[in-house]
Amino acid sequence: MIIKLSSSLSTFKTLEFNPGLNILLAERHESSGVRGTRNGTGKTSFIELLHFLVAEKRNKEDDFHNPSLINNKFEVIFDNSGSQLTIEKTAGEASDLLLVNGREVAAIDLRSELSQTWFGLNSEITSQKYSPKFGALLSYFIRKERNGGFADPVLNSTSQKPWDSQVCLSYLLGFDWHLPQKLQLKKDEKKNADALSSMIKSGYLTDGELDLKKMQARADLLDSEIQVKRRDVASAKVIDGYRSHEISANELTAKIRDMNEANLEDMDLCEDIELALVEVEDSDISDVRSLYEQVGIFFPNQVQKRFEQVEQFHRQVSKNRQIHLKKELENARNRIELRRSEIARLQLSLSEKLALLRSGVAIERLSLLQSELNFLEVEHADLQQQIPKFQNVAKDQKRLKREIDDLVDLIEQDVMERSAPRKAAVQIFAETSQALYDDAGQLIIGRSRGIAGLSIETDIAGKKSGGKNHMQVFCFDWLLVEMAKKNDRFPGFLVHDSHIFDGVDARQIALALRLAHQKCEELGVQYIVAMNSDDLQKVEAELDADFSDDFDLDDFILKTRLSDQPGGGLFGVQF
Length: 575
What we know:
The chain is α+β, with helices and mostly antiparallel strands. The protein has helices at 43-54, 107-119, 123-126, 134-141, 162-173, 178-198, 212-235, 242-282, 285-298, 307-358, 363-417, 419-436, 466-486, 506-523, 533-546, and strands at 2-7, 15-16, 20-27, 73-80, 83-90, 97-100, 103-104, 205-206, 209-210, 442-447, 454-459, 493-496, 526-532, 562-563. A hairpin with a 7-residue loop joins strand 1 and strand 2 (15-16). Helix 5 packs antiparallel against helix 6 and helix 13 packs parallel to helix 14. The longest helix is centred in the C-terminal third of the chain and has 55 residues, at 363-417. The two termini are 29 Å apart.
């Protein structure tokens, strides 16, 4: 039970708590505007302060290391099974000072003591990986709205890992928490095996699974490729000036090609000349005579030469043309012959170059062959090393998948076999929710559909809304209080800030507060809830109208009240 919260800060509002229901009220002052809020009154900081006082790690970014608060001492007094436990903490610039009952202690030692006292966690448990831890368990009984603590009943924050929730809730409710712990350890092993498997090239996968037969087939093929490549490298003869020989060969090839093309052109020319010679030889003097006579008919005064003169001229012209054509034909044939001789000479040189090039390789080519050989040898060596290892990975993946499935089955079996805690939890949640709504809510505990592990689902009457969700958190937290207390794993208090009633009807809030009071009486526990004064007024109106018992909220409001006036907040200063 929390007895008192105080500080050396002169403006701090000391809070003194009582057993049972405690209402920390934040009043809205009459002078506040319609847009005034109680965000600065310190209701949420009250939650943060409780966590700060028992925190293991120093966080110099939190509010308590703000220049306005630093070097001020904060103190909380707990009733610890009849004896008082006083924790004092001072946030310093370089380090924090922690005193427990006046004696300086390390934060880790305080945690260790509280883990044992409040939750029954010894060092043997807390030293294990994925075991229930003090901070996670406490965060179910002092939820932080800042961390999303009211978003989901089974999570103490939106960042809580599923395995952590399963381990903590199994521990508090009385199920075997070792099963979700082992499940997470197996998942880690499977994750490592999957990560190793994912390093394998996609070419070695079949339907997303490692295919060792493909790896072995590739290794066998590489054996042959390496042998061939080694022979190529061994037989390769490096030719000095290989590149210049290659260039010369290309130049010779180009020259031969050009000469062949030139010969083709001259051969066409020869054919044309030969045809022209035939035409000259075939020309008939009778055609000239016919033309001469026709000209004399139409132009008698203009034809003054005799036909003999014309015939002589025609024969001279034909002779001159024949001489010219024959000369041209001879020149073309000479060029062709010369080129053919040159081509024969060039082809001989080209053959010698090509023979030289075929007899060896360039140094660059040898380097490339060596590089290709090295690449193949490295891939082959990797495969030779990986195949035995991945044979084990593949076996591990199958084995771990079976073990994970088995553990999920064991979690379901554990929930079914532990009928006492299961029935008690279901009954408590149903009764708690039915006290707020007409219909009883449902708590469903079992295995998840997949391999998540333990599944805990809640549902209560009403439309889906933020208010309904908060009431599920309220009902679930009281379920944890009762079950954890039964299992001797309860710190003695449950603390909610005003966000627990956000979006909730005044009647349900009134019912919730009366139920909390009744449970405090029945179980001997302490419940501290922060509320705004206008919400409280609405609740009191509901109580006056609908409740005939003597439940009076004024009896539970703390003497110290917070307000939205300057200096009226918990710390009395703004920061």
